[in-house]
Amino acid sequence: MRAMAKAANTRICMLDARMRTITAEPEKGLATAEYAVVMIAATGFAGLLVAILKSGAVKTLLTNLVKQALSV
Predict the structure, then answer these.
(1) Can you give 26-70 as a three-state secondary structure string?
(2) Per-residue pLDDT tens for 10-66?
(3) Phi, psi of 62 (to 5 degrees)
(4) Cβ–Cβ under 8 Å, residues 45 and 51
């Protein structure tokens, strides 16, 4: 009977230790994952912005805008 109680106590202590370890910092790697997702989105947005700014229509619009600003 004592052996069973000791074994049960050991298992309960191990389970308690595991639960404390898991719940201590459950979102430890989450900030890194969120940072990676934001960086990928920002890079995609920057690429899209570069593609738009390199287009002929936008170049003409910006050139005309600068010319008007300088002629005033």
Answers:
(1) CCCCHHHHHHHHHHHHHHHHHHHHHHHHCCHHHHHHHHHHHHHHH
(2) 888 888 888 877 776 666 666 777 888 999 999 999 999 999 888 888 889 989 999
(3) -65, -40
(4) no
